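REVIEWER CHECKLIST
Item 1: Sequence provided? yes
Item 2: Single chain? yes
Item 3: Sequence as submitted:
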Amino acid sequence: MTRAYTAAFITCIASLASSGAALSAELMRGRCRMDYCAWFSIESRDIVGSNANGALFKVISKEWTSHHPNGTYDKHRPRTGGEASTGYYFCSKTKPSTIWQDDAGQWKMAVLNLTSPSGAEENAVIAYFAVCHGVQSGHDTSDSFDSLSKRFGYAPIQNADLHDIARPEDALKD
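Item 4: Structure as written out by the authors:
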């Protein structure tokens, strides 16, 4: 990646952050599977820091689920939940990641496969595109993970991994 391209990417991410979060509090659908759909809203997102590889955002979101008997996902159904949670996203062309604290208080960082996520990664990738690019993703061919990855210039990630970190800002190291 050229220095000019990297600078343009960081400028774009920073302007997205200062624009007032295009999707703030908008209800977005996550993955639907086995008669249930995940839902979330981004309540706030604040830039924590950036480097030549990307920008780290602290995100407060709310999450719900809805039950859809017999896989009737297009029908509106009541949602349950709505609890707030805090996580982090590292918006990066080289190391797109989500960061969270597990039940034991340990920080985890997962590098995401944006082009073809596993089922377990889908909600994180949907949230990543919302946080980092202000778009809903993953529900039809025009917003498929692969097409959005190409649109925003992401190369396939060969080494998507999960590891422990001491604190979210460690994503900015390297």
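Item 5: Key structural point noted by reviewer: The chain has one domain: 3-172.
Item 6: Recommendation: ____
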